[in-house]
Amino acid sequence: MSQEFRTGIGYDLHRLAEGRRLILGGVEIPYSKGFEAHSDGDILSHAVTDALLGAAGLGDIGELFPPTDPQWKDADSAVFLRQARELIESYGYQIGNIDAVVIIEQPKILPHRDKIRARMAKALGISADRIGLKAKTAEGVGPIGRGEAAAAHAVAVIWRAAERPVM
Ligand code: MG
User: Fold this and answer.
1) Which of 44, 80, 142, 153 is the most buried (most CB within 10 A)?
2) Ion ligand 1, residue ranges at CB < 5 A
3) Domain of residue 54, CATH code
4) Could you tell me the residue range of the domain that residue 12 belongs to?
5) Are the CB atoms for 11 and 101 separated by under 8 Å?
């Protein structure tokens, strides 16, 4: 029995606005601004969800959870992670690892990193050591540098047992 490995990439960006909650990977981070979005705007969870769906060739977050659907208004994005996991598992895949970068000017994410990793790991049914998370600033450049938005990139590796060698 050999194994079939696949990779996926995900990206998301949302505007930051006063009076909204700042949620990354399901963890609320104290700050004066948060994400403007139909859901909770959790760019990290959205990028990881897209990476998982992309790895399995199963479309994207916008198709699975349309922003026009009222049930996703202010939705906890951990639901998206869980549903993406269940969907790829239904095709026989398991998550190998996730790696992600959040680009945000403020606040500092490092003090919250391990809590975020633990929270996402729980939603994905994997151990936290399978999730990498880095945070970068935009060095004051552009809309992210001015604190008007934040973005996240993620990659995922998934695998399943294959009857025959696939590569
Ligand atoms: Mg989004």
Assistant:
1) 44
2) 12, 46
3) 3.30.1330.50
4) 2-162
5) no
